[in-house]
Design a protein that fits this description.
The complex is a heterodimer.
Chain A (H helix, E strand, L loop, with lengths): L1 H12 L2 H8 L10 H23 L4 H6 L6 H12 L2 H14 L2 H27 L5 H4 L5 H35 L3 H49 L4 H18 L4 H9 L11 H15 L3 H4 L8 H32 L20 H50 L6 H25 L6 H24 L5 H20 L2 H7 L13 H18 L3 H8 L1 H10 L10
Helix pairs in contact in A: 1-11, 3-10, 3-16, 5-10, 5-15, 6-7, 6-15, 6-16, 7-13, 7-15, 7-23, 9-10, 9-16, 9-17, 9-18, 9-19, 10-15, 10-16, 10-17, 11-12, 11-15, 13-18, 13-21, 15-16, 16-17, 18-19, 18-21, 19-21
Chain B lengths: L2 H13 L1 H34 L1 H5 L10 H38 L7
Helix pairs in contact in B: 2-4
Classes of the chains: A mainly alpha, B mainly alpha.
Chain lengths: 566, 111
């Protein structure tokens, strides 16, 4: 099996540069892909039908925010996986493996290890204390306005950066895959997302996530299966072929035999991903702890009936996401072997046609022709749509439930008022997302997802952990300490190389590491601890006295909000 | 259950030594598993930062490096630990908690 495949690869390698040069085109925009558009239209039709069904059952604020709390653990697990498996991780990680090999796996593990932590320390307590947003838990025993305001601002920041990255990614991807202009692509994503959230609320958003997760997992499974079929279901053969391809490519570049062999081998081990140990640990911390502070993920805990189902959701989510990352790993190496050797997928310089993120897309074509290419393109588009819908819903909830109903109306807003404000906010956010998508078109937004994770890890995570587990935490500590954590993460990220040097071109960055988390997470924890300890206000006494009652409710589920009756 | 009944139940339950022991057991499991996954991941990052060459060592005479089963193993470990916690909590702790709540309260505990 191995020898003939290698021979075939070598045969393909030789004429590749000349062939590619003939096909080389300047235009990044692809010809209009009708199969992809047809598949995508089918997806949109299905999701709009789901939205229509969900809209009929979305009458109260509880329906809108949490689908009435009637989602099962299995469904919620799939929806969480759908929220988390973005097009960026599918296309980005497989592309990174295509280029550097092993390094993509480091990302994958970092994105996954936050889930167990979220389960072990928070899941059941979140479900037992919360109702609509994570601020319900963060502010449970505290004065409402300061802590709610912190949580809402933090949610809006995290969601905005995540959203910009998704919108810009969507525009570029769709331009590439479907041949539509960037602005049209951004408008379609913004418009559809608004429809889902506006009319279907959490129920429609959940089912869109589930449909998307099933499509993405199905498509990726098929790709990985086809790759493995080519190598006799042996990972060893797959890796051997990939190393051979990289070695031959280095030889063709004019490297000596020894250099080429070394470059080929390099894809089997960590490479340039990690420049220094501090950045490595810091980046890992941001991914791990940030996952446990993402508002749109935390919000999903309130869609299930009880703590038991909340735990099950995390198990399913972890399982599906872990499986997905294993698939991505196989797909990335498959792309090295099947795409990296085909001149028709490469430009004159041996880079991927259409840009670095196209590895998985080209692989889909290599495996299943135009029809499967269309399917995977449509899935990638659907993926973005589902993620932005989840993000928008969580931001709308922060505005309507935390800021409007609790801070502004001090708990006197009716469910109908709250629902109206959420819908208005959704409209505003949809328009804002489209606008930001257009404004940031030409910017490098790669840092925004890691910024979102760093903010969540440094603000939300410490506030949640200390308010849940430390009796000494006070209102001032949570609100101001959390803000200090957020600000530290934000400022250090602005001063880091990815923003200071790469995005703004201001020269050598004052903060030398690629991630702020190693400083900003402890900053958040220490600030909350210190401010709480120094807090001698009368409110602080109330906060501390409230811990015992909060704890027993968090541990037992006494008084937890149950699913509404329909 | 009214707010008052909830408060009475919460007070009774929190004074029950079985509740204290159960919560301590559950917390111990949660922190132990958190420590394992945290240590495994940070250890992995430290290996990447300080001993890349070891991760690059081929297994036997093959091409696959040690880093690959270690990285994929970390993914499996995350799923496995999650499974252990959910199995333990959903099969045992929930039932024990429900029994304690039932002993102290008239009504249904979760609602």
């Amino acid at each position: 099996m191995k020898a003939p495949l290698l021979a075939a690869i070598l045969a393909l390698l030789a004429p590749a540069p000349a062939f590619a040069a003939a096909l080389e085109g300047e235009a990044q925009r692809q010809p209009i892909n009708w199969v992809a558009i047809a598949m995508f239209t089918a997806f949109v039709g299905l999701t709009l039908w789901i939205t229509k069904m969900a809209a009929a059952r979305t009458r109260t604020a509880s329906d809108f925010y949490t689908a009435g709390g009637g989602i099962t653990g299995f469904q919620n697990g799939l929806a969480m996986a759908g929220d988390y498996m973005s097009a960026a991780s599918f296309l980005g990680i497989s592309a990174q493996i295509f280029t550097d090999g092993y390094d993509g796996l480091i990302y994958s593990t970092g994105f996954l290890v936050g889930w167990p932590i979220l389960l072990f320390l928070m899941a059941e307590r979140l479900r037992n204390l919360g109702r609509f947003t994570f601020a319900d838990i963060a502010s449970y025993r505290f004065a409402q306005p300061p802590v709610r305001s912190f949580a809402a601002v933090s949610t809006l920041l995290v969601v905005s950066f995540y959203l910009i990255a998704q919108m810009v990614g969507a525009g570029q991807l769709i331009k590439l895959l479907f041949g539509l202009p960037y602005a049209v692509a951004v408008l379609i994503v913004g418009g559809l997302m608004m429809l889902y959230v506006l009319f279907g609320g959490m129920r429609a958003t959940t089912w869109v996530q589930i449909v998307k997760a099933v499509l993405l997992l199905g498509g990726a499974s098929f790709m990985a299966l086809m790759v493995l079929a080519q190598t006799g279901f042996s990972l060893e053969t797959l890796f051997a072929c990939a190393v051979e391809v990289k070695t031959q490519a280095a030889l063709a570049d004019g490297a000596t035999a020894a250099q080429a062999a070394e470059r080929g081998r390099s894809i089997m081990a960590p490479g340039n991903f990690i420049k220094d140990p501090v950045s490595a640990i810091s980046f890992g911390l941001a991914l791990m702890l940030g996952t446990a502070g993402l508002p749109h993920i935390l919000m999903r805990f309130f869609t299930v009936p009880d703590a038991r189902e909340a735990r099950k959701s995390v198990l399913w989510a972890t399982g599906w996401i872990g499986y997905f990352y294993v698939l991505t790993f196989i797909i990335g190496f498959g792309a090295i072997v099947l795409v990296g050797t085909q001149g028709s997928y490469l430009d004159g310089q041996g880079a991927l046609r259409g840009g670095g993120n196209m590895a998985a897309i080209h692989l889909a074509h290599a495996i299943g022709g135009n029809a499967f290419l269309g399917f995977i393109s449509a899935v990638a588009f659907a993926t973005i749509l589902a993620v932005v819908a989840g993000l928008t819903l969580s931001a709308a909830s922060a505005v309507s439930h935390d800021l409007y109903a609790t801070v502004f109306r001090q708990g006197r807003a009716t469910s109908a008022d709250e629902l109206r404000v959420s819908r208005l906010t959704t409209l505003a956010l949809g328009a804002l997302a489209v606008l930001l998508g257009l404004v940031f078109e030409k910017q490098n937004v790669a840092f925004m997802v890691s910024l979102a994770f760093a903010l969540a890890a440094s603000g939300n995570f410490p506030v949640l952990i200390l308010s849940l587990l430390w009796s000494g935490c006070t209102t001032r500590g949570a609100a101001w300490g959390g803000t200090i954590g957020l600000l530290t993460a934000f400022v250090l990220t602005l001063l880091s190389p990815a923003v200071w040097t790469t995005t703004f071109g201001l020269g050598v960055a004052p903060f030398p590491y690629s991630s702020a988390a190693i400083f900003s997470v402890p900053a958040g924890f220490i600030a909350i601890w210190l401010i709480s300890r120094l807090d001698r206000s009368s409110r602080a006494a109330v906060d501390k006295a409230g811990y015992a009652a909060q704890r027993v409710r968090a541990e037992t589920g006494i008084g937890a909000y149950a699913a509404s009756d329909h | 259950m009214s707010r008052k009944e909830q408060e009475a139940l919460a007070a009774a339950v929190s004074a029950d030594p079985r509740y204290v022991a159960l919560v301590a057991r559950r917390a111990r499991l949660g922190w132990t598993l958190s420590a394992i996954i945290f240590a495994a991941f940070v250890g992995y990052l430290l290996l990447i930062a300080f001993n890349r060459a070891w991760l690059a060592t081929p297994i036997g005479t093959g091409v696959m490096s040690l880093g690959i089963p270690i990285g994929l193993g970390l993914i499996l470990l995350a799923i496995l630990l999650t499974g252990i916690y959910v199995a333990q909590a959903n099969r045992h702790y929930d039932a024990q908690m429900a029994a304690i709540l039932k002993d102290h309260g008239p009504g249904d505990a979760g609602a």
